[in-house]
Amino acid sequence: MPKNSKGREIAEIIPEKCIGCQLCVGECPVGAIVMEDGVAKIDPEACIGCGRCFDVCPADAIIFEKPRKKRMTGVGQAPVPVDEYKGVAVFIEIREGKGAEVSWELVGKARELAGKLNTQVLGFILGTDIKPVGEEAIAYGCDVVYMIDAPLLKAYLPKVYGNALVHLLEQVKPEILLLGATPLGRDLASVSATRCETGLTADCTGLDIDLQGRLLLMTRPTFGGNIMATILCRNHRPQMSTVRPRVMKLPEKDGSRRGEIHTLDFAAPEDNLPRIIDFIATPVEADAEDITSAPVLVVVGKGACDTRHLPMFRELADLMGGAVACSRPVVQAGLLPYERQVGQTGKTVAPKIYIGIAVSGAVQHLVGMQSSDKIIAINTDRNAPLVRIADYALIGDYTEMVPRLIKGIEARIQSFEGKASKR
Ligand SMILES: Cc1cc2nc3c(=O)[nH]c(=O)nc-3n(C[C@H](O)[C@H](O)[C@H](O)COP(=O)(O)OP(=O)(O)OC[C@H]3O[C@@H](n4cnc5c(N)ncnc54)[C@H](O)[C@@H]3O)c2cc1C
């Protein structure tokens, strides 16, 4: 097994066997695999030796032998004493200071499930100044609301939200957790299910209870919708499911309902903090631009994920009357908030001009931006998928290319203004 400079055993690609399917690229949690000349290539320094690429490779083109380390979190370790877990919990997503409608739809469903299990409906809320949402949750049907109210939770950051939700799960131990299948809900569900080592059934269209085993029956279409599969999570807790908006019925709101609200303490792990400070200090996050309506998007990729250069990206966006967006690794690194993520688990955008700065163009990113009118790629790798689909490509280091682009645009604006003033 090869090792990187940190002495970490890493995966190795056999180029002759690689079929260029990019499954490993999408699976790598740290973005350590890129495509070069149609062949996957691992950055040894970025590889964390998790072996996920090895698991998904359909062509046996990856060598990986290291025995897996078991991840331990406290919740969901197999086998769990399932009897200790009680209650049907709903993660209440907050949008513009209010509970999202899908969350109330799930509270309605949770009431039905909790009735069958003879247990309580629990609301889990994360954010800042969220007491009114807690009261609304009770009005919609929660018996007990657990919330973490902290400035760190003002905007969605996967790592911080994941840590906070797992903290609630460890403290409260619900037997079921339902989340809306929204971009945020899907992301948070996968982060927390992985941390809890429990099962997650996405996009359920039906939820019911097997009373004998006290199990959640999670039904969803499969094989292209040709059959309905009912999935069980027998040995792990919580049993987790996401449901799309408007699949479940919105319950009546009853302001006279009474319930309990508990606020729990939460301290973000130390390694979250410097990034959050960057995030709060960076002027780009201060505004509330909607990347889906911006005519120009300057999209920051992992190769340009550097706080020092954010003002430069902002300058380019301002010059063109646009907004700054990003790929998923940039959100995961805490550099930009989730609202700015483009792609499968982020937002779908179709600006007049999309400028991808050090974005490789993984399939999960492309699905969120491929309808853009004009695509400009800035990349050191001329074979990056985004470069291949771009209308214009600037091949080179972004630290040289972006200032040149800014100067060029400024010069054009000045000459345009000069001509206009002579008329
Ligand atoms: C279930 C799932 C959902 C996902 N959802 C999303 C999603 O919604 N959105 C999303 O974006 N991703 C998503 N991903 C992740 C996706 O697979 C890729 O890992 C991610 O898009 C890669 O981001 P990137 O292009 O910024 O980074 P990389 O793929 O690492 O690319 C970095 C690029 O920067 C270039 N570069 C490096 N240094 C420089 C430099 N100095 N100058 C110029 N260029 C440079 C490199 O050549 C490379 O092309 C998802 C993955 C999974 C498994």
Describe this structure as you would to a colleague.
This protein is of the alpha/beta class. It has 3 domains: 12-63, Alpha-Beta Plaits (2-Layer Sandwich); 82-268, Rossmann fold (3-Layer(aba) Sandwich), CATH 3.40.50; 282-422, Rossmann fold, CATH 3.40.50.1220. The protein contains 13 helices and 21 strands. It has helices at residues 23-27, 52-56, 101-117, 131-140, 158-172, 183-196, 273-281, 283-286, 310-319, 328-332, 363-366, 385-389, 398-422, and strands at residues 12-13, 33-36, 39-42, 62-63, 88-92, 94-95, 98-99, 121-127, 144-149, 176-180, 200-204, 206-210, 215-222, 227-231, 239-243, 260-263, 296-300, 323-326, 353-357, 374-379, 392-395. The strands form 6 sheets. It has a 7-stranded parallel beta sheet with strand order 11-15-10-5-8-9-16, with helices on both faces. Strands 18-17-19-20-21 form a 5-stranded parallel beta sheet. A 3-stranded antiparallel beta sheet has the order 12-13-14. Mean pLDDT is 87; it is low at 68-78 and 276-287.
